[in-house]
Amino acid sequence: MTDIDDILWLLKDGKWHDTKEVTVKAELTEFKTEKVLSFLKEYNFIQVTNDGRIRIQPSIRQFLEEIQRLEKEELQK
Hints:
two-stranded antiparallel ribbon
């Protein structure tokens, strides 16, 4: 998986997370985490509060859940 994938899967629970938590769980440097989060924010994949909390956009979350469902279906064939 790419760093972007790792962070999106980490955020797919829909809850608010802080940057430090994302950095630790994704096992990235702070610099790399900030770069990825900046990209995700620029392209509207995530929501970011004024105090820096982050969560995935609901539409992106639904998209990831649908991908998981389809992958599961494919494995059962």
